[in-house]
Write a structure and sequence with these properties.
Shape: globular
Helix content: 10-25%
Distance between the termini: 54 Å
Structural class: alpha+beta
Strand content: 25-35%
Radius of gyration: 19 Å
Number of strands: 11
Strand order of the largest sheet: 2-3-4-9
Length: about 130
Amino acid sequence: MSRRRLLGTAGAVAAAGAVTAVSACGGEPPKPQDVRRGHVIGQTTDVPEGGGTVFSHSKLVVTQPESGDYRAFAASCTHGGCTVQEVEGGVIRCLCHGSEFDYTTGEVVVGPAQEALEEFSLTIEGTDIILD
């Protein structure tokens, strides 16, 4: 057997194993947010009042529309899946295609997105923001 064919066969076996592993776990890998539940995702000092912060490691955007009122939304744009990049002027913006979402509700303000951002509940302990 040639080296090229041997490597191709090994790659196919590895790919089949990966597909089997995902299938055995219910078909899809967990969302980044599911893995972070019960964990500190950031600090309240990182989230400005009247604004918000994107926490890329947990694929969440946390906003603070009013003092002490923290909201969490999925940071994946519902249009194309890009990670939203900024919170400014009362909206969460995805710069990939221009979608904007209300930073208090996650509802679409400007398309092309048609669906709201998924909302998550939080617990604040001191300055820790914990995903419920």
